[in-house]
């Protein structure tokens, strides 16, 4: 695979990794009160601050990763965030039945997403990114 193809795949990967987070980050932003209530329901410490962090990471950092700006550090921060949401939002080990199954699936989806984010942290954003435009001169 040539460098141009690799860079295109990296761009597509950034978009596919982030589309979920941008959609749900936007929903959290536009329904901020409900987001805070959900954080309270999960037993999240400091739910208002947690809701702000969720919006910033999911929506703002999601857009940043699609654009490919500060990709490596943001991907690492995002991976830590996704790990935290896996443990806080999907504690399947405390559940039974269908609730357990659904949360176990979502927990391991988060783990898989972390794999993609860590790979992005190692590879960088590629040629089709603001990182390349501003920092590779």
What does this structure look like?
The chain has about 140 residues and is mainly α. About 80% of the residues lie in helices and about 0% in strands. The longest helix is centred in the N-terminal third of the chain and has 28 residues, at about 5-30.
* Rg (C-alpha, Å): 16 Å
Distance between the termini: 24 Å
User: What about the largest sheet?
Assistant: none
Number of H/I helices: 6
Order of helices and strands: HHHHHH
Strand percentage, roughly? Answer: under 5%
Total domains: 1
Structural class comes to mainly alpha
Q: How many extended strands?
A: 0
Low-pLDDT stretches: none
Q: What is the typical, i.e. mean, pLDDT?
A: 95
Percent helix, as a range, is: over 70%
Family: Belongs to the DoxX family.
Subcellular location: Cell membrane
GO cellular component, one term: plasma membrane
Organism: Serratia plymuthica
In brief, what are we looking at here?
The chain is built from 6 helices and no strands. It is mainly α and 137 residues long.
